[in-house]
Amino acid sequence: MNKIVIIGAGFGGLNLALGLAKAFKNDHNVSITLADKNDYHFFSPNLHKAAAADEELVSIKQLKQSVALPLKEILTGKSITFVKGELSYVDQARKRVTIGRSELEYDYLVLALGQEPEYYGIPGAEQHGLPLSSLPDALRIRNQLEFLMQTFRLQARKNNLRIAIAGQNANAAELALEFGKNLEFISWKNRVPRSSVELEIVCPNNCLAGDLDKASDPALRQRLKDLGVKASLDRTIAKVEKHFLDTLAGEKIYFDLLVWLSGSRAKTVKSQKTLAVGGQGRIAVNGLLQAQGEDNIFVIGGGMRAGDQKQLVECSPWEALNQAKYLTYALPVLLKNRRPKEYCPGREIAAVDLGGRQAIYQYGQKYAEGFFAYLRRQCLFFRYFADLIGFWKAAKFIFFESEIFSRGK
Ligand SMILES: Cc1cc2nc3c(=O)[nH]c(=O)nc-3n(C[C@H](O)[C@H](O)[C@H](O)COP(=O)(O)OP(=O)(O)OC[C@H]3O[C@@H](n4cnc5c(N)ncnc54)[C@H](O)[C@@H]3O)c2cc1C
Question: What pLDDT does 398 receive?
């Protein structure tokens, strides 16, 4: 019996498990185990919507549905064993992983753990900034804003309520825009004048595009302006205090709520034999996506580092899917003691929500923005969900239920 253990049921891990279950459908000599600390598949591209939605607009149930698909629904009827638990240790010598309180034996191990927020050692950043990388994070941000609005009204404060978002990437812009879109309603509901609430994105360089095509910068700036979000560019954060961001240039930026979206790094994996890591803590892999020096440990998604410094493979949900597809092909070949072709990154895809029915869509060198890009984004998400939960359920969810988020400007 060949035991394949996949840790992480995100974009990479879940789709690999599903692919392998199909590939080994009639092979009883292979077992597939999928483990995750949560019992749902986490859909991060909708997380900013969950964090900025008001409870009167979108119920908790709708929020959960949009970012957390129950794994039971996806895995029923598939020959995959699911184990809920957190990975704490990889023992290469004994070929075992510790998940929660139990141990799992493996012949082939795939790490698909994704990423966590990066604070770059900036004093106070972790203590005072709220991260946004999980469903509980999104709910915490939403509750905190509600609480701040209510206390602001009761205190009859003179200075404005200020929300700051630290980040130089599409995720930070998406959250700022979603807040901008919903703030009118949220302040009206809490009987706080909209003009008393300030929203600011604090970015260390002069371009909001981050990893996106530079052409997206004017569109992002315009949309932020339209939705009443101030863009503070060229502000490198040196220190975070309870209510202040201190910049390198000596400026102090006041905030009531700070969301930290300024970077991410790979989840740390504790192991008996240290795994070689590169920048952002990502585990270095070879052309077969094997961790360096390890024949039977593979790494996919945001936790791995492939390519050289010049051509580093960017992490995105769609690239994690591409890597899952690659291992679906490569693992059966390796099991037959043959050498598979090497992994080749797919075309870069970026689908950035600009709030309402506006988006930026990038596919390789092609770039689109506006309503057409929004449609492309919806179709991309639809295709993804349809593969997981079936055509009709996906259509109902994408084109009807989650449409609630797109209302407004
Ligand atoms: C707020 C936010 C918004 C984003 N929005 C976008 C976007 O709009 N577009 C885009 O292209 N990219 C976006 N990304 C990036 C995107 O989420 C990643 O590129 C993608 O999810 C990587 O897939 P993955 O399979 O590596 O990891 P993930 O999909 O993150 O899956 C990792 C899985 O591992 C599990 N896990 C982690 N640690 C453990 C452990 N110790 N034990 C057990 N299980 C564990 C997690 O529960 C999770 O299910 C966003 C990321 C964040 C944080």
Answer: 80
Q: What is the CA radius of gyration of the chain?
A: 22
The domain ranges of the chain are 2-37+85-117+264-346, 125-260
Q: Which fold has domain 125-260?
A: FAD/NAD(P)-binding domain (3.50.50)
CATH topology of domain 2-37+85-117+264-346: FAD/NAD(P)-binding domain (3.50.50)
Of 69, 90, 113, 319, the one to substitute when testing ligand 1's pocket (max ligand atoms within 8 A of C-beta) is 113
Question: Around Cβ 353, how many Cβ atoms within 10 Å?
Answer: 26
- How confident is the model over 192-242, as pLDDT tens digits? 999 999 999 999 988 888 888 888 999 999 999 999 999 999 999 999 999
Compute the distance between CA of residue 355 and CA of residue 310 in angstroms, rounded to an integer: 33
Lowest-confidence segment of 4-13, 44-53, 56-65, 269-278 by average pLDDT: 56-65
Nearest to 146 by CA among 159, 124, 163, 167: 163
pTM of the model: 0.94
Which protein residue has the closest C-alpha to ligand 1 atom 5?
A: 45
Q: Give yes or no for a contact between 99 and 117, defined as CB atoms under 8 angstroms apart.
A: no
Q: What percent of the chain has pLDDT over 90?
A: 74
Using CA atoms, how far residue 246 sits from 125, 198, 249, 398, in Å, is 11, 18, 8, 41
Ligand 1, residues at Cβ distance < 6 Å? 7-13, 35-38, 42, 44-45, 47, 86-87, 112-114, 132-133, 171, 267, 301-303, 315-317, 320, 350
Over residues 375-400, the pLDDT tens digits come to 999 999 999 999 998 999 888 888 77
Other beta carbons less than 10 A from residue 374's beta carbon: 22
Distance of CA 322 from the midpoint of ligand 1 (Å)? 15
Joined tokens for residue 383: 């295709």
The C-alpha atoms of residue 373 and residue 225 are separated, in whole angstroms, by 20
Instruction: Return all residues near 151 (Cβ < 8 A) that are at least 6 apart.
Output: none
CA distances from 31 to 13, 84, 109, 388 (A): 15, 17, 12, 21
The residue type at 380 = L
Q: What angle do CA 351, 233, 239 make, to 5 degrees?
A: 105
pLDDT tens-digit series, residues 53-86:
877 767 777 777 788 899 999 999 999 999 999 9
